[in-house]
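Protein details
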Amino acid sequence: MGSITMAFDNIKIKISTINNVGSKLDDQLEAINNEIKKLEGGLATLKQVHRNVDNFVNVVDSDLRLGKFDEFSEKERVAETIKSFIKCISKSISNTNSQCENAYTKLLGKQDGLNHSIKLVKSMLDEEAARLSDAEKKLNDGLIQIDENGDPVHVGDIRDRVPGIKPASLSKQRKDEMENAKDS
């Protein structure tokens, strides 16, 4: 029964490994989801700040009309200089916003890739679990037997064979029987 146990243990090791990979992918996905939430909040804030800064240009024009720059000898030039600074700040905020949007798009791509990887790993995990269950059921039903060398062999229909368990027709005992039959 040692070889059959080893065959089952190999499947269990695969399941454990696949499960560990899946857990690590889940952790990475959670980290990316957190980063996406942070960027979404940052993008919303940047857009609001950008609108507010752009509104300051209108405030300068309004203050100029209301005479708030009358104390300056070149009030139009002062107003234009202030608006120029505001526009520089606005452009800087816009550039930062673009960089954040690019980072956001990149994270969405990573998120999508991880989701596909997790589906693949889940599929692999399900396949190996089904394979183990199938092998255990076939062992209990007598479709897998142990030959004289202690190796598991499949004695049922070859199409129902569990991967990793050789068909009985290829077992050493079966080959020896066939050799003996030829010699007789």
About this structure: The mean pLDDT is 84. The first helix runs from residue 2 to 65. The helical segments are 2-65, 75-140, 172-183. The chain is about 75% helix and 5% strand.
